[in-house]
Task: inverse folding
């Protein structure tokens, strides 16, 4: 069996690697962190000019019509440079569900401008990984040809910079519908939330926001299906980002421990250092294996629910161990918030918590396996 990437996939990866490496250097990132910008607009424009923002957008709407594999390869490269642009929120949370469930009118309105870099998207789905005690909710009331939406949702990825946000809402019967809400609509307010990575999340409040049926993504009442479809791909995309972040953190640590000397020899020759580095390498490769399996099964149209849960759990659990060790092996330098390795630590921790951390993933995985014996057997084989 041939597991190599094809020519187009390799070209996409190489192009993304060149763009991210040329722009998001350590020197640039240090200067960027010291200013008040939340995103690198110049990098966003470059990706649009090179056609990478439209990587999964159909040809008819200004994209290149490639698939999830190519998108994940680009996200890996972003993770390796921890580049501050809203790729995940726009291309995963926005483009993928609109491409799958949207009407032609919705695709023309949102996908074509995004491919050119003129528009950004997101989705308010953080509640999928939250406890019911703290999760927000949007209530929908249907009257005539319109819907009225009220409520609040937190932790919307890149919400403050989005032009439109996918919002799940529940009706009086508990049925969910996903709406595409334009952020400039009357009654919509967004307040930036500061995370460990900066102002990269937002609180979304809807106060008697009125939308027509053309704002519904998919069919009314079919929101659970849309959210389940999106959750799998969103978690898989986070795994791609995490792989890039942790693999680069390990690479930098290997270089550091080979150059840093103590008692006249490189600290990488010390047994305690070498053993921690070896454990970190094993974690990275394990993360890669389960992520690739999940990516393969989704791309092949197979049931990948268990595999995605396993991959996301590894991204959260092993991801924490990897960046903890890599920062620790940098000694006092690793504690410096302006030293590059600290940035990788923050990114990995943030990615691991998005849409549910370790405990959330293992709980959902256990419930899934308990509900289906066939899935349980497949997971044991993983």
Result:
């Amino acid at each position: 069996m041939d597991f190599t990437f094809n020519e187009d996939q390799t070209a996409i990866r190489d192009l993304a690697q060149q763009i991210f490496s040329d722009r998001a250097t350590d020197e640039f990132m240090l200067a960027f962190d010291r200013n008040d910008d939340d995103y690198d607009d110049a990098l966003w424009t470059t990706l649009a000019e090179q056609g990478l923002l439209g990587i999964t957008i159909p040809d008819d709407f200004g994209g290149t019509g490639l698939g999830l594999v190519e998108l994940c390869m680009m996200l890996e490269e972003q993770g390796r440079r921890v580049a501050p642009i809203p790729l995940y929120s726009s291309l995963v949370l926005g483009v993928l569900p609109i491409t799958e469930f949207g009407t032609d009118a919705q695709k023309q309105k949102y996908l074509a401008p995004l491919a050119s870099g003129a528009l950004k998207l997101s989705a308010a789905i953080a509640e999928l990984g939250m406890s019911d005690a703290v999760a927000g909710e949007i209530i929908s009331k249907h009257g005539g040809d319109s819907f009225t939406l009220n409520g609040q949702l937190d932790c919307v990825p890149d919400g403050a910079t989005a032009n439109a946000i996918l919002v799940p809402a529940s009706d009086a019967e508990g049925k969910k519908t996903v709406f595409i809400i334009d952020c400039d609509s009357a009654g919509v307010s967004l307040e930036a939330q500061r995370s460990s990575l900066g102002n990269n999340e937002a609180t979304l409040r809807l106060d008697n926001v009125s939308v027509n049926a053309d704002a519904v993504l998919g069919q009314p009442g079919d929101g659970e299906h849309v959210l389940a479809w999106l959750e799998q791909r969103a978690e898989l995309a986070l795994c791609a980002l995490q792989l890039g972040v942790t693999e680069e953190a390990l690479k930098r640590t290997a270089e550091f421990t080979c150059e840093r000397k103590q008692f006249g020899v490189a600290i990488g020759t010390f047994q305690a250092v070498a053993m921690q580095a070896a454990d970190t390498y094993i974690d990275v490769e394990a993360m890669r294996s389960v992520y690739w399996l999940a990516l393969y099964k989704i791309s092949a149209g197979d049931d990948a629910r268990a595999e995605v849960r396993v991959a996301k759990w590894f991204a959260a659990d092993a991801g924490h161990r990897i960046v903890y060790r890599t920062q620790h092996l940098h000694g006092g330098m690793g504690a410096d918030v302006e030293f590059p390795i600290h940035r990788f630590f923050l990114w990995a921790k943030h990615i691991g918590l998005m849409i549910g951390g370790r405990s959330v993933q293992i709980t959902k995985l256990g419930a899934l396996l308990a509900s289906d014996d066939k899935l349980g057997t497949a997971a044991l084989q993983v």
